[in-house]
Amino acid sequence: MRLKKWLVWTASILLLVLAIFYSRYDLRGYTVLARLNNPQESGLLVRSETHPVTTTNAWIHSAGISAAGQLYFPKGVSHPPGIVLVHGIHHLAISDPRFQNLACALAGVGFAVLAPRISALADYHVDGASIETIGESARWLEQRLGTGPVTLMGISFGGGLAMMAAAEPQYASNVRAVVAIGAYEDLARVSRFLATSEEVFPDGRVVPMAAHDYGAAVFIYDHLEQFFSACDIPMAREALRYFLWEQPDQARLLLPRLSSAGRGTMEILLAREIERLRPQLLAAIGADEKELAAVSPHGKVAGLRVPVFLLHGSGDNVIPPAESLWLAREVARGEVSALLITPAFSHVDLKGVLSRWDKLRLVHFMGQVLRAAN
Question: Does the predicted TM-score (pTM) go above 0.90?
């Protein structure tokens, strides 16, 4: 009888320890999401899991690459594990307040977070050199911290590039896990979605979904020579840059400095009537198929042998959520630790109003990520 009671007592203690262990990371996940939604969040649960954070400029020198960045460090944590956080396509890059909120929130729960500035993404380009910058950033952070391999976490177009960096053999030993948020698997397929508003799923389904004109404008900015004459390109680049920076009035001031044909194309873009440029978009995508494939995870990430976490907004109209399903199919079986397609995000912006179930799923997903990263 005593032995039986002892076994029951021991089992109960073990279950309690396991429950505390797993709920601890879900609590940290909740803290990250709460601080992402509101950096000033100061509830009891959030305060209990949050460290003060210091932010310093970093200059990443590694294997011939040099990149500026920011390092977020939790005070009071002597040997924090590392996360390399890769921004998406945006001119503010690592200075985007939303991005900084996420970096601070992750550092606040005990991680050293390195945010390298990917110059091509800051200028609305997706290129192969960025893969090396991301991989070398992981190597640099691991060497600096001395706490073992680091986690790569990429957002939007940075997510696809982060997965490719993690799959490179020379960086395999530097990467503990990879997290892709709103990422792409095939850049040509995403580009066609932006031109046609048709989302293609791995099972062959084609579903109508209104694409955001921002994504098509980014594609055109990266392929100006296929939409504007040589003499119009410098001014078209400046005008389209203003448009992408959400300063359309400044872009309109440059219209008189374009040729008649160039002005017509730019007016269509400023009016957000992308469907009128669909034939040109599809022709440009077809012409650049090889270049787009070179910077796509498709066919390149099956060798990943670390935990992979895929998160996508169900209403993402820049990179459609089917892309995360394609990524899950591409990665070796057993390496996808979690896949969540959720109404919690539009593209990469967190929504404030969610059902309790959606909140719980998102918190648990983030808890799994933090557990793997630790």
Answer: yes
